[in-house]
Specification:
alpha+beta, C8orf32 fold
């Protein structure tokens, strides 16, 4: 399946901004089952400095600086992506117990296991606590296969938490999400990651997009999609397996991966600092459309 993704971010300032420095993580990764055919960033006003690099996690990062006075900044990422393979579904018949996975994370001396260890630790947004451990223990019973336990955790989060756009922001503490059992995709991913880390497993945050389909008989609304988030758990010998608690599904051909890290703070789509500008308004438009 091939997709074209158009992600537009617009900042409107109440006063003139004279200088800004920014980082964008808006361009899809190259993966075994995902090929980024093209990806272009269009920035207005044009930057005087623009560079691309890979960050610590291997995500594509574009740095740019604007030095001309401006009351409006628009960043548009247009990408074409081919999803050529589904996640290894044979992994979902794997019978390795979650306790075995936890022990192998610490005893295996492969580069993959060493890398996965960092995802067992607390991170800026996700600090595992007793409440997350209590919730996780209903899924992680003794001897249960890891894939079965994580699938159960995903299903329970989907059942117990209400998707409520606008209830949280990127600054809302995870404790508030847990207390009200409400939030959005990034909140559910963070909570699942906290639960997994509380039992000693490696879990990472994944940002990207998902193709959304309109109700039967309704037209597809251009620009009405949004960024999406889910999580991955590490399974020795097989690698990382993705789970989407918002939709209670295993990501396959409809999910497009942009970046991953310990939590949202590592993969923020667009962040920076501006000198001047006063207050600002933010508008985001995302369109994910299949192409021939």
């Amino acid at each position: 399946m091939n997709y074209r993704v158009v992600h537009t971010t617009e900042y409107l300032y109440s006063d003139w901004a004279g200088l800004c420095h920014n980082e964008a993580r808006l361009q899809p990764r190259q993966l075994p089952g995902q090929k980024c055919l093209s990806s272009v960033l269009r920035i207005d006003p044009p930057p005087v400095d623009y560079r691309e690099r890979l960050d610590f996690f291997g995500n594509r990062v574009a740095y740019f600086a604007i030095q001309s006075s401006h009351e409006r900044m628009v960043v548009t990422a247009t990408s074409e992506v081919a999803i050529t393979a589904e996640q290894n579904l044979f992994a979902f018949g794997n019978e390795m117990a979650w306790e075995t996975v936890r022990e192998r994370l610490r005893s295996d001396h492969t580069p993959e296991s060493f890398d996965a260890l960092q995802y067992t630790l607390d991170s800026p947004v996700v600090i595992a606590d007793g409440e997350m451990l209590d919730y996780a223990q209903d899924s992680f019973t003794a001897g249960r296969p890891l894939v079965e336990a994580v699938s159960n955790l995903m299903q329970r989060i989907h059942r117990d938490f209400t998707y409520s756009p606008g209830f949280t922001t990127i600054a809302t503490p995870l404790s508030e999400v847990i207390a009200h059992r409400r939030g959005v995709c990034q909140d559910f991913a963070h909570f699942a990651i906290g639960c997994l880390r509380s039992v000693g497993l490696a879990a990472r945050y994944v940002s990207g997009y998902i193709e959304t389909l309109p109700p039967p008989g309704a037209p597809r609304l251009v620009g009405a999609d949004a960024s999406h988030a889910w999580f991955s758990v590490y399974l020795p010998d097989l690698g990382w397996l993705d789970f989407d608690p918002t939709n209670n599904q295993i990501p396959r051909e409809q999910h497009i991966t942009v970046a991953w890290g310990r939590d949202f703070a590592d993969v923020t789509p667009l962040k920076g600092v501006a000198f001047g500008g006063g207050q600002h308004k933010l508008q985001v438009s995302v369109d994910v459309a299949p192409i021939d």
